Amino acid sequence: ILVLSACGDDGDGGGEYGLVQDGTLTVCSDVPYPPFEFEDADAPSGYSGFDMDLLQAIADNLDLEMTVEVVGFDPLQSGTVLASGQCDIGASAMTITEERMANLDFSDPYYDSLQSLLVPVDSGVTSIDDITGTVGVQQGTTGEAFANENLPEGASPEAYPGDAELWTALQAGNIDAILQDFPVNDEHAQADEGYEIVDSFETDEQYGFAFAKDEKTELLEAVNEQLSALREDGTYDEIYDRYFSV
Ligand code: ARG
């Protein structure tokens, strides 16, 4: 029998996971990225969203406090932030990719996603092939990579640090479209009838929680165990229904 010893466990509920701070799950995230992460004064961590609620449920089950540190997405996805030891886990609607796996470990997938194109309703654009001008993308994302490969001639990608900057730029008319994850563009389209998603792309993306490579194996295992427990006891579905209509 293989006994996983709780070596280093000082009994305060966290020592065994090699946490940055004993008893606390320190989460790094690029906020805002609704509906996955956004500020919420009523939430125990100060943040809500699909990622945040899932992690809060996991932290509760593991008897850990959850605290959130806001970081840029690009250094998070490249592994820099997590390698520095600032956080235990990265939660940022982050797609599991081969390239990222060179610098990060990922949890089991927890959400299936796709790319999409958001434009003003009067733009005359009905698909990616109609696009001319500039297409806003978030720096370091799979949306940026998709735009680099799939934009037609005459259109060019322009990278912004985050979703908030992209949305401001689109509303100001500084860019002609936003290419990014479907649920996030959909959030804008639902909130403002002046904008619509006119094209989507089945990129077969799956989100995972990220960890410094080879540094957090026990925490990663615990998170995976909790993810399947939450799927089994209905908590995952309950959280899913808070943010997504079927
Ligand atoms: N899923 C995309 C990726 O992994 C975009 C994620 C951006 N997330 C964020 N919180 N800004 O590249």
Tally of helical segments: 8
**Beta-sheet strand percentage?**
25-35%
| Order of strands across the main sheet | 9-8-10-7-11
Question: What is the 3D shape?
Answer: globular
> Could you spell the SSE succession in H and E letters?
EEEHEHHEEEEHEHEHEEHH
Q: What is the subunit organization of this protein? A: single chain
Helical fraction: 25-40%
Radius of gyration based on Cα positions = 19 Å
Which ligands, by name, code or SMILES, are bound? Answer: arginine
* CATH class assignment of the largest domain: Alpha Beta
- Quick one: CATH superfamily of the largest domain? Periplasmic binding protein-like II
Question: Biggest sheet: strands, sense, closure?
Answer: 5 strands, mixed
CATH topology of the largest domain: D-Maltodextrin-Binding Protein, domain 2
- Total count of strands: 12
